[in-house]
Design brief:
The protein is an alpha/beta fold. The chain is 43% helix and 14% strand. The protein has a single domain, classed as Alpha/Beta hydrolase fold, catalytic domain (Rossmann fold), CATH 3.40.50.1820. Helix 3 packs across helix 4.
C-alpha cells in the first residue's frame, strides 16, 4: 500500500491509518517534492506547475521499488495524482482509494466544485500577501472539527513548515486543476471516500467522482472536515479494510 498526502501536509498525516494495514501489506510512505522531509533542492518551479509532474514522481517511486498490484491511497489532491498515474501505467495498480477527491474545485456549468473562480483568486491572493496568516486562517476551515482545535493547530503547523513559494505553486496546480476527463479512463477498482461535512470537497463532488469512475465504490463517512485520516481514522481505516 502506498499512501500519499494532500496539499500542505506530509506523510505523518497517515500515522493513524497506515499502521493498521502493516500486518498484511508492505507500507510505503513518502513526501511529495517540496513537502515534509523531501529534498527542497529537487523542487523545480518549471516542472511542478502541473499535477502530472507529481504523478510522474509517484510512478518513479513504484518503478524504483519494483511495485505492482499497488493499493494507492491518495488524500485530497493526491487522489487525482493517483488517477493520473494509474491511467498512465495501470499494470502497476491493484486498487485506488480516493480520500476527499476533487477533480475540479471551481464550479462549472452543471458541475458543483465548491468554489467560484473569484473564490480561488481570493484564496491565492491571500496566500501571496500573508502566507502565515493565510495558513492560520484556512487550516481550521480545511480540518473542520472546531471542537477539537488541536487538529486545526496540527494542520496550521504543517502548512507553516512548507516553503511559501512552493506552497503557492502547489496551491495553483491544485485549485486550478481540472481532471474530470481523466476519471472515465480509470480501469482499476476504486473506492471514493467522502466526508459528510467537508468545506473543500462537498458531497456533490464525491458523488460526481463516483459516477464518473466505472464500477467505483462509494462510502460517505459520518465525519467532518477534509482530513478524515486525522479526524476519523478508525472510520477511514474500516472503510478501506472493507473495500479491500
Amino acid at each position: 500500500m502506498v499512501f500519499a498526502h494532500g496539499f500542505g501536509c506530509d506523510q505523518n498525516m497517515w500515522r493513524f491509518v497506515a499502521p493498521a494495514f502493516a500486518d498484511d501489506h508492505r507500507i510505503v510512505l513518502f513526501d511529495h517534492v517540496g513537502a515534509g522531509g523531501s529534498d527542497l533542492a529537487a523542487y523545480d518551479f518549471d516542472r511542478y506547475g502541473v499535477l502530472d509532474a507529481y504523478a510522474d514522481d509517484l510512478l518513479e517511486i513504484l518503478r524504483a521499488l519494483d511495485l505492482r498490484d499497488v493499493v494507492f491511497v491518495g488524500h485530497s489532491v493526491s487522489a487525482m495524482i493517483g488517477v493520473l498515474a494509474a491511467n498512465a501505467e495501470p499494470e502497476r495498480f491493484g486498487a485506488l482509494v480516493m480520500v476527499g477527491p476533487s477533480p475540479r474545485y471551481v464550479d462549472d456549468d452543471g458541475y458543483v466544485g465548491g468554489f467560484t473562480a473569484d473564490d480561488i483568486d481570493e484564496l491565492l491572493g491571500s496566500l501571496d500577501s500573508n502566507y502565515l496568516g493565510w495558513s492560520s486562517a484556512i487550516a481550521p476551515v480545511i480540518m473542520g472539527n472546531a471542537d477539537r482545535p488541536e487538529l486545526g493547530d496540527e494542520l496550521t503547523n504543517s502548512f507553516c513548515r512548507t516553503d511559501p513559494e512552493i506552497a503557492r505553486q502547489f496551491a495553483e496546480a491544485t485549485f486550478r486543476s481540472d481532471n474530470r476527463a481523466d476519471l472515465e479512463d480509470v480501469r482499476v477498482p476504486t473506492l471514493v471516500l467522502q466526508c459528510a461535512r467537508d468545506a473543500i470537497a462537498p458531497q456533490e463532488v464525491g458523488a460526481y467522482v463516483h459516477a464518473a469512475i466505472p464500477g467505483s465504490a462509494f462510502v460517505l463517512l459520518d465525519a467532518t472536515g477534509h482530513c478524515p485520516n486525522l479526524s476519523a481514522p478508525a472510520a477511514t481505516t474500516a472503510a478501506i479494510r472493507s473495500f479491500l
